[in-house]
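Quick question: what would this complex look like in 3D?
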Amino acid sequence: MKAEMRQKLAREPFAEKIRKVAQLIRLAKTFPRRKRLTPAQPHGK
Amino acid sequence: MAINEPSDNLPLAEVLRAANGLVTAGLIDDWALGGALAAIYYVEPFTTYHADIFFIPKDKGLSAGIPAIYAHLQAQGWRVEREHLLVRGFPVQFLAASGLTEEAVREAEQIEYEGVPAKIFRAEHIVAIAASVGRARDKARIEQLLQPQQADLDQSRLENILQRHNLKLPQP
């Protein structure tokens, strides 16, 4: 992300940032991260 | 339900109101929001799944008055799940402050969030506490707070805190 965009996000009002955190939580629940595959499990088994 | 509806938001105002209620009820002396949500006050938002409320206990005994705090909040409909209390499903941890964290509570910044008066750790204390804990996520938090386009840290205040508590920032 560009530095200017990150600075803009950091300068937003706290209430707006908290709304964004709530959105991030919902996104994380909707699209959970896949566990990294280890060499012993090359196909995710 | 649309993603931006207020009911989709974190119940932070309820958390802060409840913390004020603990002072009114005489269960704690003072409190402040710390942890990741306090860091987000100063930097760009990131994912976090709970709130940390640091409090100065009224009861100086070993339990720090935690059983009475839990009972008080449970009577208001909060649920207990392991080390957290849950309000509308959002986990909140109440942590007794001492030493550096007690100083962070006493010197916390006064804010107002959705009409609720609250206190929040200063960025310099968040950095110092992260330096004292030293996990990978704490190092990442320090790095983020020290970036010039993020929090506007008071460098002399930070150095003073680090020196008094015998702490050093991790090497990059």
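Answer marked as accepted. The radius of gyration of chain A is 17 Å.
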